[in-house]
Protein backbone atom coordinates (compact mmCIF):
# COMPACT_ATOMS: atom_id res chain seq x y z
CA UNK A 1 0.00 0.00 0.00
CA UNK A 2 1.33 3.44 -0.77
CA UNK A 3 0.53 6.39 1.44
CA UNK A 4 -0.83 9.35 -0.50
CA UNK A 5 1.29 12.45 -0.11
CA UNK A 6 3.57 10.71 2.34
CA UNK A 7 7.18 11.59 2.91
CA UNK A 8 9.73 9.82 5.07
CA UNK A 9 9.65 12.72 7.56
CA UNK A 10 5.88 12.46 8.06
CA UNK A 11 5.60 8.69 8.54
CA UNK A 12 7.00 7.10 11.66
CA UNK A 13 7.00 3.41 12.54
CA UNK A 14 6.85 2.44 16.21
CA UNK A 15 8.19 -0.82 17.63
CA UNK A 16 4.67 -2.20 18.08
CA UNK A 17 3.96 -2.10 14.31
CA UNK A 18 1.90 1.06 14.60
CA UNK A 19 1.99 3.72 11.90
CA UNK A 20 1.46 7.35 12.76
CA UNK A 21 0.43 9.48 9.79
CA UNK A 22 -0.69 13.09 9.73
CA UNK A 23 -3.39 13.70 7.12
CA UNK A 24 -4.72 17.16 6.40
CA UNK A 25 -7.32 16.06 3.87
CA UNK A 26 -10.65 14.42 4.73
CA UNK A 27 -10.60 12.72 1.32
CA UNK A 28 -7.19 11.13 1.96
CA UNK A 29 -8.24 10.09 5.47
CA UNK A 30 -11.41 8.43 4.14
CA UNK A 31 -9.42 6.67 1.40
CA UNK A 32 -6.84 5.48 3.93
CA UNK A 33 -9.57 4.18 6.26
CA UNK A 34 -11.40 2.46 3.40
CA UNK A 35 -8.13 0.88 2.22
CA UNK A 36 -7.02 -0.48 5.58
CA UNK A 37 -10.45 -1.19 7.04
CA UNK A 38 -9.90 1.29 9.87
CA UNK A 39 -12.44 3.67 11.38
CA UNK A 40 -11.52 7.34 11.86
CA UNK A 41 -11.61 8.33 15.52
CA UNK A 42 -13.55 11.52 14.94
CA UNK A 43 -17.19 12.11 14.22
CA UNK A 44 -18.67 14.19 11.43
CA UNK A 45 -18.96 17.08 13.92
CA UNK A 46 -15.15 17.22 14.22
CA UNK A 47 -15.16 15.85 17.76
CA UNK A 48 -12.22 13.59 18.57
CA UNK A 49 -12.90 10.32 20.37
CA UNK A 50 -10.53 10.31 23.35
CA UNK A 51 -10.65 6.66 24.35
CA UNK A 52 -8.71 3.54 23.51
CA UNK A 53 -9.71 2.21 20.08
CA UNK A 54 -11.46 -1.15 19.86
CA UNK A 55 -10.07 -3.98 17.78
CA UNK A 56 -12.85 -3.34 15.24
CA UNK A 57 -11.67 0.26 14.72
CA UNK A 58 -8.08 -0.65 13.88
CA UNK A 59 -7.08 -1.19 10.28
CA UNK A 60 -4.65 -3.62 8.70
CA UNK A 61 -2.12 -3.43 5.86
CA UNK A 62 0.01 -6.28 4.52
CA UNK A 63 2.86 -3.91 3.79
CA UNK A 64 3.55 -0.19 3.85
CA UNK A 65 6.31 1.29 1.76
CA UNK A 66 7.59 4.61 0.53
CA UNK A 67 9.36 4.41 -2.79
CA UNK A 68 9.99 6.22 -6.03
CA UNK A 69 7.60 4.78 -8.56
CA UNK A 70 8.75 4.34 -12.11
CA UNK A 71 7.10 1.06 -13.06
CA UNK A 72 4.23 -1.24 -12.21
CA UNK A 73 4.04 -3.55 -9.21
CA UNK A 74 1.20 -6.02 -8.84
CA UNK A 75 0.88 -8.13 -5.72
CA UNK A 76 -2.10 -9.98 -4.35
CA UNK A 77 -3.13 -9.44 -0.76
CA UNK A 78 -6.09 -8.70 1.48
CA UNK A 79 -6.42 -5.10 0.33
CA UNK A 80 -7.18 -4.36 -3.31
CA UNK A 81 -6.45 -0.72 -4.07
CA UNK A 82 -5.07 0.92 -7.18
CA UNK A 83 -3.20 4.19 -6.85
CA UNK A 84 -2.19 6.24 -9.85
CA UNK A 85 0.78 8.54 -9.36
CA UNK A 86 0.73 11.55 -11.67
CA UNK A 87 3.83 13.60 -12.35
CA UNK A 88 3.97 17.05 -13.88
CA UNK A 89 6.19 20.09 -14.00
CA UNK A 90 3.59 22.52 -12.64
CA UNK A 91 0.58 22.40 -10.36
CA UNK A 92 -1.77 23.41 -13.18
CA UNK A 93 -0.63 20.45 -15.30
CA UNK A 94 -1.15 18.11 -12.35
CA UNK A 95 -4.62 19.57 -11.77
CA UNK A 96 -5.52 18.99 -15.42
CA UNK A 97 -4.18 15.43 -15.28
CA UNK A 98 -6.11 14.77 -12.08
CA UNK A 99 -9.34 16.02 -13.67
CA UNK A 100 -8.72 13.87 -16.77
CA UNK A 101 -8.16 10.74 -14.67
CA UNK A 102 -11.21 11.56 -12.55
CA UNK A 103 -13.32 12.00 -15.70
CA UNK A 104 -12.09 8.67 -17.07
CA UNK A 105 -12.82 6.81 -13.84
CA UNK A 106 -16.29 8.34 -13.59
CA UNK A 107 -16.99 7.46 -17.24
CA UNK A 108 -15.95 3.86 -16.59
CA UNK A 109 -18.15 3.70 -13.48
CA UNK A 110 -21.16 5.04 -15.37
CA UNK A 111 -20.53 2.59 -18.24
CA UNK A 112 -20.55 -0.29 -15.76
CA UNK A 113 -23.98 0.84 -14.55
CA UNK A 114 -25.44 1.53 -18.02
CA UNK A 115 -23.48 0.39 -21.07
CA UNK A 116 -25.38 2.51 -23.60
CA UNK A 117 -23.05 5.18 -25.05
CA UNK A 118 -23.61 8.10 -27.35
CA UNK A 119 -20.39 9.07 -29.15
CA UNK A 120 -19.37 12.70 -28.83
CA UNK A 121 -16.70 15.12 -30.05
CA UNK A 122 -17.58 14.50 -33.73
CA UNK A 123 -16.90 10.76 -33.43
CA UNK A 124 -20.04 9.97 -35.43
CA UNK A 125 -19.05 12.33 -38.25
CA UNK A 126 -15.51 10.95 -38.39
CA UNK A 127 -16.75 7.36 -38.63
CA UNK A 128 -19.30 8.31 -41.30
CA UNK A 129 -16.57 10.05 -43.32
CA UNK A 130 -14.34 6.94 -43.14
CA UNK A 131 -17.12 4.63 -44.26
CA UNK A 132 -18.23 7.00 -47.02
CA UNK A 133 -14.66 7.15 -48.35
CA UNK A 134 -14.39 3.33 -48.31
CA UNK A 135 -17.75 3.05 -50.08
CA UNK A 136 -16.76 5.64 -52.69
CA UNK A 137 -13.59 3.72 -53.57
CA UNK A 138 -15.64 0.57 -54.26
CA UNK A 139 -18.20 2.30 -56.51
CA UNK A 140 -17.56 3.43 -60.07
CA UNK A 141 -18.94 6.35 -61.96
TrEMBL record:
InterPro entries for the chain: Chaperone_TCP-1, Cpn60/GroEL/TCP-1, GroEL-like_apical_dom_sf, GROEL-like_equatorial_sf, TCP-1-like_intermed_sf
PANTHER family membership: CHAPERONIN
A Pfam family: Cpn60_TCP1
Top-rank lineage group of the source organism: Eukaryota
Alphabetically ordered keywords of this record: ATP-binding, Chaperone, Nucleotide-binding
Recorded GO MF terms: ATP binding; ATP-dependent protein folding chaperone
Keyword Chaperone: yes
Protein's name according to its UniProt entry: T-complex protein 1, theta subunit, putative
Keyword Chaperone: yes
Family: Belongs to the TCP-1 chaperonin family.
Species whose genome carries this gene: Oryza sativa subsp. japonica
